[in-house]
Specification:
By secondary structure, this protein is α/β, with parallel strands linked by helices. 44% of the residues lie in helices and 14% in strands. Bound molecules: NADP nicotinamide-adenine-dinucleotide phosphate. This is NAD(P)-dependent oxidoreductase.
Length: 290
């Protein structure tokens, strides 16, 4: 029996990872869910999973939480800019607690990607390697769910704005990435780097078409939603005009520029090989989210 730990266990991805571990036959009692708040972890407790409370900012609590854990799914934090130190804390605590292997959820093409999010992932991968602990890196591509937030505005205006040109994403659902993580950590190949990309390669024109199809399928009275490329500065100005708050106003053009460069696309089949199937179609995930 192997004891698995999962950080970020009350988040979207973490919840699916735990579901994936249970589906892979891991006993609930062999799963330690590390969460910031016990109130959010009620459902996990009901499922028989052990819940321990620790924040990425509190190294001692993390080390206590990892006691007895043999393989840890380390889910990257959500506070962009604070994550280098937070992730270092998690790794140090895992080493101190004698964890045998870390499976870290990184970013697709983390070693070469120039999007702003990549730097903290590169730092974390190096920190894990330098710690000497066995590891696997799960470099997740874009979540299909990322586009759910743009859907309502695009349906209303008939336009999806951006600055990704003809660049492509290879999105998959959070559930796809999480199940792949659960499978990879139950059959670990230490040192392995998985480039996890979805089966479809979509431009933002394709995303706008998916918006149209989903809107029509739900009976909305819409025409064709079109993608309009505003260029980097134009998109930034449009977001400012629409009073999109920082840091999103800065991040969104940066991410689209990354899409145009190909940072969020890959022909890797690692995700499909782990899942034993194609990734969930973008449109299907979108329809569930909106
Ligand atoms: N590839 C992509 O498209 C993409 C998109 C968005 C995010 N991400 C990355 O993937 C991660 C997981 O995604 P998700 O959808 O599951 O995000 P999420 O629902 O926001 O979950 C993030 C999890 O991290 C936990 N967390 C954040 N800061 C923490 C801290 N200081 N100490 C302890 N726990 C902390 C959160 O705890 P609480 O439950 O208490 O909030 C939550 O459980 C994100 O955190 C981010 O790094 C990737």
């Amino acid at each position: 029996m192997t004891v698995y730990g999962v950080t970020g266990a009350t988040g979207h991805l973490g919840t699916f990872v735990i579901t994936g571990l249970l589906a892979a036959g891991v006993e609930p009692g062999d799963i330690v869910a590390v969460a910031r708040s016990s109130s959010k972890a009620r459902d996990l407790i009901d499922r028989g999973v052990t819940v321990r409370i620790a924040d990425y900012e509190t190294p001692e609590a993390l080390a206590d939480a990892f006691a007895g854990v043999e393989r840890l799914v380390m889910i990257s934090g959500s506070e962009v800019g604070a994550r280098a130190q937070q992730h270092a804390n998690v790794v140090d605590a895992a080493v101190a607690a004698g964890v045998g292997l870390i499976a870290y959820t990184s970013l697709l093409n983390a070693d070469t990607s120039k999007i702003n999010l990549a730097e903290e992932h590169r730092f974390t991968e190096k920190y894990i390697k330098d710690s000497g602990i066995d590891h696997i890196f799960l470099r997740n591509g874009w979540y299909s769910e990322n586009y759910a937030g743009s859907y309502a505005g695009a349906v209303q205006s008939g336009t999806l704005y951006g600055c990704a040109g003809e660049g492509k994403i290879a999105p998959a659902s959070r559930e796809n990435y999480a199940l792949a993580a659960a499978i990879a950590v139950t059959k670990p190949e230490p040192g392995r780097i998985y480039e996890l990309a979805g089966s479809e390669h979509l431009t933002l024109t394709d995303v706008a078409k998916a918006f149209t199809d989903v809107a029509k399928s739900t009976g909305e009275n819409v025409g064709e939603i079109s993608y309009v490329d505003l260029g980097f500065n134009g998109y930034h100005d449009a977001l400012a005009k629409a009073q999109v708050p920082e840091p999103l106003r800065t991040f969104l053009p940066d991410w689209d520029a990354g899409i145009e460069r190909g940072d969020l696309d890959s022909d890797s089949r690692d995700l499909q090989d782990l899942l034993g199937t194609e990734s969930t179609p973008f449109e299907q995930t979108l329809a569930k989210e909106v």
